[in-house]
Amino acid sequence: MPRFVLIGLCEPNSDDVQEQFNEWFVNQHIEDTAKCPNFIRGSVFKLSGPHVNIDTPAGYLSLYEVEAESYEEAERILNEWQRDPDAWEGRKKHMETGQKFESMPMRANGSGWYELIKYFDGPKAGAEQPSAVGARAE
User: Fold this and answer.
1) pTM for this structure?
2) Would you say 31 and 41 are in contact if contact means Cβ atoms under 8 Å apart?
3) Distance set, CA 91 to CA 27, 65, 86, 102, 112 (Å)
4) Among 11, 23, 64, 129, who pairs with 6 as Cys (CB 3.0-4.6 Å)?
5) What CA–CA distance (Å, rounded) separates 129 from 115?
6) By three-state DSSP, how is residue 113 classified?
7) Is 24 a residue whose pLDDT tops 90?
8) How is the beta sheet containing 3-12 ordered, strand by strand?
9) pLDDT (tens digit per residue) in 48-102
10) Cβ neighbours, 10 Å, residue 27
11) Is 12 helix (H, G, I), strand (E, B) or coil?
């Protein structure tokens, strides 16, 4: 089955909402989205520094690995999943957290589906993945 990644380039609206961003996006939204039935994994990364002096469009990168026949199918399943208030046990808390803020504590600078066409393992392939359990949102 084809494999895709869905990426999101985002950041808090301002320094004033960093805690809200961490609570809703980093600590809840990534997990909530990753629970979608055809998703393999969801991750969020915080920008550590530029590469080759190119502008970086966002302070955070969300990355979801997904199996689907097409990106359209993946998008359809994700949209249905996100509309279902009972999709999983954590959905209610996630929705309540989002509603307690006056507005969304983030802005998206870009997002898109990318189909895997080829990959190469590096020397660390198969090494234990870092655990997000207990990870602290900065």
Assistant:
1) 0.88
2) no
3) 13, 20, 6, 19, 23
4) 64
5) 22
6) strand
7) yes
8) 39-46, 60-67, 3-12, 106-115
9) 998 888 888 899 999 999 999 999 999 999 999 999 999 999 999 999 998 998 8
10) 17
11) strand
